[in-house]
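Following up on my earlier thread - several people asked me to post the actual chain instead of describing it. Fair enough. Here it is, all 816 residues.
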Amino acid sequence: MRDRDAKGTDMDTGERPFLPVMLLLFVGSGCAALVYEIVWFQMLQLVIGSTGVSLGVLLGAFMGGMFLGSLLLSRYVPEDRHPLKVYAALELAIGAFGLLLLVLIPLVGSGYVAVVPSGFGSVLFRGLLAGLLLIPPTLFMGATLPAISRYVSATPTGVSWMGFFYGGNIAGAVAGCLLAGFYLLRVHDIVFATAVAFGLNLAVAGLAYGLSRVVPYSPPSRERSAEKEGAGSPEPEGSSVFVPRHRAVLVAIGLSGFTALGSEVVWTRLMALTLGATTYTFSIILAVFLAALGAGSALGSYVARSTPNARTAFAFCQVGALVGIAWTAHAISQQLPFWPINPSIASEASFVFQLDLARTLWALAPAPFFWGASFPLAVSAIAEKDQDPGALMGGVYAANTIGAIVGALAFSVVVVPWLGSQNAQRVLIGFAAVAAVTLFMPLVLKKKTGPVWLGAGVIVAFLLLTGVTQIPPVLVAYGRYAPTYDPPNTLYMGEGRNSSIAVTELSNGLRNFHVGGKVVASTEPQDMRLQGMLGHLTAMLHDDPKTVLIVGFGAGVTAGTFVAHPGIERIVICEIEPLITDVSSQYFSEANNDVLSDPRVEVIHDDARHFLLTTDEKFDLITSDPIHPWMKGAAALYSAEYFSLVQDRLNDGGVVTQWVPLYESTEPAVKSEMATFFEAFPDGTVWGNTYEGAGYDVVMAARKGGLEINVVDYVNRLMSPDHSSVAMSLAQTGFPRAMDLLTTYAADAYDLADWLADAELNRDRNLRLMYLAGLGLNEYVAGDIYREVLDRRGFPDHIFTGPADRVGFLRNLMGY
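Reply from S.P.:
Thanks for posting it. Predicted structure:
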């Protein structure tokens, strides 16, 4: 079929040769957009936190801008403007905002933390900040597709090219996702990544403008000049997609966006359990999802060119998406957790990435493929002769995007926390069925057997819906190592706003607390010892502590140790996941001294960094036991800026302690953690927790004003009657003798200076630890790392003071 615009221009012989080049424009544009998205989200999460609510408002603001841009382009940019020149201007605007936000986010963020309200007002304020910063640049991003669509006509071949543009944009997004996640931010930082994205914007804008000088463009005769009607005049009904006859298609493409983004939220969370929640995992999941969308869009674009009934093809795509959702739900819960895979035997991280890619493709690809194919078919289904292609593309894109916004927010903030992932996927299948029925209804009712077929389809959808099973407890408990464990004795399993939780009990009665597929706390000896250190060491290094902040609750054992210390007047617990504190109070109350019932305790359910940024309160003690650094988002609680913030929130003489795991880590990651801590606390120290005689994890500790421990005063204080409960608690956590806690001293910043000389500091601008630790989640070299620390230590006479005989006794206990 030959395409002609309203004035009769033969597009097959005239403009067609330039369309493949224009496709390359969208590849570059999509690549830059994903780099910006990752950078902006990383920067804004440091300000407004990494909670489910924060992520929801960020995504809503980002996609809200895309929605507005797609909708407003055709209303405010006349058709007489050359599409390539408009496209070039949009790319330049995106690039300008990309550079501007590098400066604006920190500036606006500092103002935000100074005035942010508490409670629900905080949620609204976070949304306002995200919208203020993200909507302007994303508005221009959303306008690019409708702008370039004006270069083709609303005919089958023209619509097909619109679909190819859409697919090219997604292909670029895949490249941008992998480029940012595996190179730009791993090797460089957000400034460098932004510079690369800006360079892409400039290149795309330059190419688009250059093409506009050689590619002819004749505005269609329907074009309304600004002099006659005004640039913002409403469009005549014939050129608008928002008319009753197109309602079913627009509803269906909106539901397609709703189920697509809702599924992405649910599946990303579940696949992170299966693969491990590293930054690389999220990049792989997003890349596979986008790649499947792009492949589907390419096929849908080809079909749109030749099919006599695009609406029917669109309807069958909704059926395909429905079956795809059911397939993924089955693969995640019944297949992947039981594949015979032990990731720890991989000799290189690249082999793990290959395996993760294969598993993600197997589980996730089908449904996104059909969602991708749906878009060009939906455009084709409502395309009409002499229709403004920009309005056509913008209207369909807007309907799809508004559905995606609702889906992302609903499933991240409401559906999964309230109903769980099993029922969330059932809801998704139900809405996919509604989309299919909406399209099929007028078609099947024309046939005598139509209602029968429709009924049969509904029954099949219902069977698929009810066939969705719950994820196995072993997956929530042990994550990527689930295939290597027998089904545990699960006392509890639940899914919260930010994390999936499980409590298991071993045959000997010991309990493990699992978050996101890993053990984060337990009543096993090595963990009780660490949890006791984080509490008692912090308190005993201070002369007279009154207030304490605990970052990360876990089973609550660390928080519970402070109940025993006399003089403590206020205990603030900052935990990002509300379900963690609820569950711990039920299953670990004996181990944690029922700390949550203590009247001195206040629980803050928020990202700890956000809490510290927005509070004026200062503390005598701050102890931090966040999730493992390889888990995405945790590195923000190990950055130089975070430690500086902690220092500002300490009273004079205040003590800070920070957990550092040696297992599931590498030497570069541990060096980064220690060197970054020592930059903020130059007199910092390292205290070791061993397991079966080898290094296991360590506690970094520092005191504002310098650390000095009089050995006699320490022992007398611990042996005094008012500290009897402290001594008892220490014995229960593995320190039966008065000086046992002091013997865990391993080294200080001065001992380790040479060893840490090549360490990469973890700063907000690069969050380097997230990438270093993500390469070592399958490593078990804790003993080797701890030996490197001990080999460099000397007895710290400047720290342990007092009578020579008592200091000498401690020296002998420590093996000097």
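The chain has four domains: 18-216, 247-283+303-471, 473-515, 523-813. That should answer part of your original question.
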